[in-house]
């Protein structure tokens, strides 16, 4: 029976005992903002011109109102703008030599988008936008409208109607979807971002390690929800944010408690963590505008044990094997559905019982790019799974393999997830991956 006093003590300890889990450096807010603004300027010069040329688009229009921001436009705002202002209109035009970046607004939008509207000369903002367009005579005008990709569907119906009403008829015919342009901008990572992304993932790994330790877990007392709320408090204490509520659950030697059949549509119930449990967490943070998504596992030692049982370590190895099978199928130009089908076929041939639900990650946790399976769509995902893989993109390699354990007389689900980067050299884990189960408590090695 856990008591209120014990729970209070449990939560007071982790914050004081940090020496065992030294946290990687987290930049102060001012430095974070400066870095993000540098990245934006670099991306406008390197990433965006290549994508506009790849997609054959010479003008991109982004429009949003304060507190109702287009997901793409929000990534183009300066760091000290926490939202759009009034009606924010951004115009990006490929001159053939460089990008012209304009703000049809009352002021510059950071260092990138320069003011291009004088209200005293033209009182109507929409008319001025139409002037900016017709003066440049683009062949294709991309706007963020998409049937299947929410991140590329940020233009409101009202703003679309206003744009079409103010454009001459000849230019209305040039308006096209910016779906692939938006996805390409969001999914592409630069070398500067990837240098820092490793630290972002390392911070996430360090927080997970704290939670899956005896700094936080007292077997027989601590519940899975206690660990969940430790994670939420720890993220806030570090000045970071969570993009989803963490999950912590257990699987154990109880044939009547078959966690491998639990639907992913429902959260696991609160459970007191006991010796002999396999503890699993699903955890993610947002830092510097980049997201992590990680699932790792720990074993709670029974009295007298110094290591996890061989059968659990073997199950974990099967999960690692499935990850290898999946990432070996990554090829530029292949669709998410093609990668999924090949990986599942080879995993089953290897004797595994796989389930793959890998997704892009970056500016958003469930990011722009190809979906590689959903937990309830293992036959392929229409539309989102038909999008191809491009180099210089990041993914959460998320999956599970079911393993029958004779020692427990039940099937378990070894759930795993690590963030990875895909380029011309293949797939690499941004900050490595969990190669062995954590032990609770950690064993001191001589």
List keywords for this structure.
5-stranded antiparallel β-sheet, alpha+beta, disordered N terminus, elongated, 6-stranded mixed β-sheet, 446 residues, 17 strands
SSE topology sketch:
Layout: H1 4-16, H2 29-55, E1 59-65, H3 71-74, E2 87-94, E3 99-103, E4 114-115, H4 125-136, E5 141-143, H5 157-166, H6 169-172, E6 175-177, H7 179-187, H8 191-211, H9 224-237, E7 247-251, E8 278-283, E9 286-287, E10 290-291, E11 294-300, H10 310-327, H11 336-349, E12 354-356, E13 359-360, E14 393-405, E15 410-423, E16 426-429, E17 438-440
Parallel strand pairs: 1-5, 3-4, 5-6, 11-17
Antiparallel strand pairs: 1-2, 2-3, 7-8, 8-11, 9-10, 12-14, 13-14, 14-15, 15-16
Number of helices: 11
What structural category do the secondary elements indicate?
A: alpha+beta
Number of beta-strand segments = 17
Assembly state here? Answer: single chain
Which regions are unreliable across 5 or more consecutive residues at pLDDT < 50? 1-20
Distance between the termini: 36 Å
* Main sheet: strand order: 4-3-2-1-5-6
Tell me the series of helices and strands, N- to C-terminal. HHEHEEEHEHHEHHHEEEEEHHEEEEEE
> How much helix, percentage-wise, in residues?
25-40%
What sort of overall outline do the alpha carbons produce when their principal axes are compared? Answer: elongated
For the largest beta-sheet, the strand count, sense and barrel status come to: 6 strands, mixed
Average pLDDT number: 93
Spatial extent as radius of gyration: 25 Å
Beta-sheet strand percentage? 15-25%
Polypeptide structure, described:
There is one protein chain. Mean pLDDT is 93; it is low at 1-20. The protein has helices at residues 4-16, 29-55, 71-74, 125-136, 157-166, 169-172, 179-187, 191-211, 224-237, 310-327, 336-349, and strands spanning 59-65, 87-94, 99-103, 114-115, 141-143, 175-177, 247-251, 278-283, 286-287, 290-291, 294-300, 354-356, 359-360, 393-405, 410-423, 426-429, 438-440. The longest helix has 27 residues, at 29-55. The chain contains eleven helices and 17 strands. The strands form four sheets. The chain has a six-stranded mixed sheet with strand order 4-3-2-1-5-6, with helices on both faces. Strands 12, 13, 14, 15 and 16 form a five-stranded antiparallel sheet that branches. With 446 residues, the protein is an alpha+beta fold. α10 (310-327) packs across α11. β14 and β15 (410-423) form a beta hairpin. It is elongated and about 80 Å long.
């Amino acid at each position: 029976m856990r008591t209120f006093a014990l729970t209070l003590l449990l939560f007071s300890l982790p914050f004081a005992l940090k020496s065992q889990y030294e946290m990687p450096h987290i930049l102060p807010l001012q430095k974070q903002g400066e870095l993000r603004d540098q990245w934006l300027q670099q991306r406008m010069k390197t990433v965006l011109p290549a994508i506009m040329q790849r997609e054959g688009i010479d003008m991109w229009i982004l429009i949003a109102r304060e507190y109702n921001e287009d997901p793409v436009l929000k990534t183009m705002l300066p760091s000290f703008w926490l939202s759009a202002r009034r009606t924010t209109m951004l115009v990006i035009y490929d001159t053939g030599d460089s990008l012209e970046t304009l703000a049809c607004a009352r002021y510059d939008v950071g260092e990138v988008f320069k003011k291009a509207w004088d209200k005293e000369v033209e009182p109507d903002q929409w008319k001025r936008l139409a002037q900016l367009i017709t003066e440049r005579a683009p062949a294709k005008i991309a706007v963020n409208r998409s049937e299947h990709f929410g991140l590329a569907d940020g233009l409101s119906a009202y703003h679309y109607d206003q744009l079409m009403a103010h454009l001459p008829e000849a230019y209305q015919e040039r308006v096209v979807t910016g779906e692939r342009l938006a996805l390409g901008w969001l999914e592409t990572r630069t070398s500067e971002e990837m240098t820092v992304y490793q630290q972002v993932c390392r911070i996430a790994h360090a927080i997970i390690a704290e939670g899956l330790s005896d700094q936080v877990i007292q077997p027989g007392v601590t519940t899975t929800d206690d660990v969940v709320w430790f994670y939420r408090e720890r993220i806030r204490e570090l000045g970071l944010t969570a993009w989803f509520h963490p999950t912590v659950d257990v699987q154990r030697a109880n044939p009547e408690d078959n966690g491998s059949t639990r639907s992913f549509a429902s959260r696991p119930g609160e459970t007191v963590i006991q010796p002999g449990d396999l503890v699993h967490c699903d955890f993610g943070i947002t830092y510097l505008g980049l997201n992590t998504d990680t699932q790792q596992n720990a074993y709670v030692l029974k009295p007298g044990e110094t290591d996890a049982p061989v059968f659990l370590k073997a199950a974990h190895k099967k999960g690692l094997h499935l990850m290898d099978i999946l990432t070996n199928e990554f090829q530029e130009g292949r669709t998410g559905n093609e990668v999924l089908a090949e990986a599942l076929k080879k995993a089953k041939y290897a004797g595994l019982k796989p389930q793959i639900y890998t997704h892009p990650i970056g500016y958003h946790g469930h990011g722009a790019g190809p979906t590689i399976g959903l937990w309830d769509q293992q036959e392929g995902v229409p539309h989102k799974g038909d999008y191809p893989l491009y180099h210089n993109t990041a993914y959460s390699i998320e999956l599970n393999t079911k393993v029958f354990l004779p020692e427990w007389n039940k099937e378990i689900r070894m759930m795993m997830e690590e963030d990875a980067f895909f380029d011309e050299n293949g797939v690499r884990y941004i900050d490595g991956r969990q190669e062995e189960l954590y032990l609770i408590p950690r064993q001191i090695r001589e």
